[in-house]
Design a protein that fits this description.
By secondary structure, this protein is mostly helical. Helices cover 97% and strands 0% of the residues. The chain starts with a helix and ends with a helix.
Length: 78
């Protein structure tokens, strides 16, 4: 009877391993995906801040160009 019990127990352990391996692999893939998404979010945040800075620089340049256009118009009138 103990041999049958040992065989049944080992069979149960084998079935448990077969059932848990895909779950563990899925968990590993989810962790890797989360890490990749976090890294991507950091990159997007950095790019967003750079775009905001460049937008401010462009706005300043537009103001400068507008000021120069007014100066040129005034010079042309004289």
């Amino acid at each position: 009877m103990t041999d049958k019990l040992i065989i049944a127990f080992l069979g149960f352990i084998g079935a448990l391993i077969v059932a848990l391996k895909p779950i563990l692999d899925l968990n590993t893939n989810i962790v890797e995906l989360k890490t990749s998404i976090d890294n991507f979010k950091q990159s997007v945040d950095k790019l967003d801040s750079r775009i905001t800075e460049h937008g401010k620089e462009i706005d300043k340049l537009k103001e400068t160009v507008a000021t120069h256009e007014v100066r040129i118009e005034n010079l042309e009138k004289k």
